[in-house]
Records
---
Amino acid sequence: MSKIVYKFGGTSLATAENICLVCDIICKDKPSFVVVSAIAGVTDLLVDFCSSSLREREEVLRKIEGKHEEIVKNLAIPFPVSTWTSRLLPYLQHLEISDLDFARILSLGEDISASLVRAVCSTRGWDLGFLEARSVILTDDSYRRASPNLDLMKAHWHQLELNQPSYIIQGFIGSNGLGETVLLGRGGSDYSATLIAELARATEVRIYTDVNGIYTMDPKVISDAQRIPELSFEEMQNLASFGAKVLYPPMLFPCMRAGIPIFVTSTFDPEKGGTWVYAVDKSVSYEPRIKALSLSQHQSFCSVDYTVLGCGGLEEILGILESHGIDPELMIAQNNVVGFVMDDDIISQEAQEHLVDLLSLSSVTRLHHSVALITMIGDNLSSPKVVSTITEKLRGFQGPVFCFCQSSMALSFVVASELAEGIIEELHNDYVKQKAIVAT
């Protein structure tokens, strides 16, 4: 019997009405495994709880309880919200939050949502078994961004007695060798779903979200963006890594290893279809075409010229970046010049300025703030003719343009932030919408 894994994100669980839709889907389709995120906004509240003063934590706790109690009231089912949230009470007494405390606190969101969805399905006559994520997602010792130990997970999986037709599992969380709660990182519920799929040898993963698939560009930026019927894993990986927020990048690896297709669709309009992500792209083109665009705002670009000043070259620059915990979004090295992009939401301006001071000791270093990263995903985009064509088009916009040619499937540019949406719109209209060849 084939196994299918369903995953529902936080927006799919944001209200009582949404939870009813989710439970309708589960009770109708009866998937083998259901993975759920925390209710939308709850993880952010739990992060706020950790960073607040003792007095402020009481207020945040009331917000967390209130959000869940309102949903339970509208669902009209008995559910012990206060029993769950009582796990936070000890943290009203001591201010210090360790990494282990942080993981335990944030895991509450998924623990509650899994229990709540299970309770609602039970009232509709479908009893989901409960598969504790901490007994299945086994990881290293990092509390905030743990890495799964796949060999250990596979060995443990074969010892499980899974006798029920359908199970619910918390996303985002797992446990280390000591049995302590760990987190897979924000967005990790997607990762949980595909890891379960790999372990169970599932035939399909369905990601239910608030949009019906992957689009040629974020519809919030380009109103007439089009849904993409299918993508290869590599194309999806590039999109996810460079700004597309629908899927969490690491979640693709288990399905890539096991050859399991992913279907992305809407909880609220599933009949409109979605996007398939396959091991092999069935719509590959031998002409240079752009299939989709992604945009990352709030970036900074740093160029390092070590031609004259005796810097140890790329190896020394990489060493400095690593020693300061800086992982660039993108990097290119050419003719004794290294250029890299940093995400301002991850790396503070103060940390960037300190890095530039260090690099300037042995090189000519320039830092550009207020830039955006535009990435084009498609086929055969690495030729000089394609790069030249796109660069020439961008010359019509005032402001600096830096090019990063990554692979035949991905071509990125760094542009002035205020120009980014205009550039995206022109590229989308000229190449994506028209399905036009970029260069002949």
---
Amino acid sequence: MNDMEKIDNYLTLLKDEIRNNSFGHLPLKYRVRLMRYIDSPLIVNKIFYNCVVKIKSLKEEIFQDNEILLQILFEIRDYLYNNKGDKNHFMMIFDKYKNYLYEYDALGGLLLSLCFNIATDASLMLDIAEYNEEDDNEYDFEMWNPDFFAEIIFSEGLYFIPSNSGSVEKREAYWIGVLEIIEKICRNANFEVAPLYYQKGMDENFIIPSRNQFDDTIEAQFKDILFFIVDCEPQKLKEGLEYKILFVSSVVDMFSILSSKGDVIILNTKNVDRICNEFRNIREQMYKKNSKQGAWFQVEILLKNKDLYTLDFNYDNLEQIPSLFQEPDWLLKMFKEYPRSKEYTPFWLQKIVGSKVKYLKS
């Protein structure tokens, strides 16, 4: 008996197992055995990818309204079917988007699990530590495989929770469909259950209108805080030098002062706390003046002396924001706190916001 005959025979047995299962569920032990028969991380991950595509067809509106989901799925397809990129890239995606994607519940877990499996050669299925035929319900959700996340979405419930068990009929239909996909991929490694189309947005054509949140009152408040910065520890900021003052704020704050000689100026914690509070208060007041224009992520001040300085507000430029603050879940939380209208939202931020938060009216 060759390998394909062995797989075909086992697939037939699994169809009976699904039909005889009171939940319509295909237990993990059978899936592990099947994937070990296949014994190819690439094929296993292609099977998982096609499970995701099946779900995409059900949740098309969510994918279309949340471009990051489409972008990640497209990168996965390009790697699995066109050999583009490096598998380690998907661990970077997993780490970067983990907190953000879990806001999408099982759909986010589905994509994260696939990214992790690609990065680790399908380890969640092919290399389960000390596996003793446990089923999915005996593992934390972070150890679930894409095929099981897809089952949850397709059946609209968890088979092991009586109050939210979902549809047995839908679950059975899902697994029978998955077995058919497996058979086709094992015979033709380039098989796809459906084509994937993704057109990147034209960010460079997006022009943000001018803002008018800054006025004499706001400028006076900035002067007050600059006076405090210069005077609170006068021995540290010397006359005759220029200073770059940077304040970045999202989930946390970052404050720094760099002299024109390259020295980092460190103020005591009490003074820094007061300065950060003042900057946040100023931002809040600017936002209230015209909330549809949004709130700035950072302000950079070039200080020559108390009366000579420039202010540079960053509302829209992701590349200027320090990498620590570029976490998608942080950026989303910032938008939830300070929503803006779509015309004032750069395309990269629209991708993160997706349909999670409503835009303000223009």
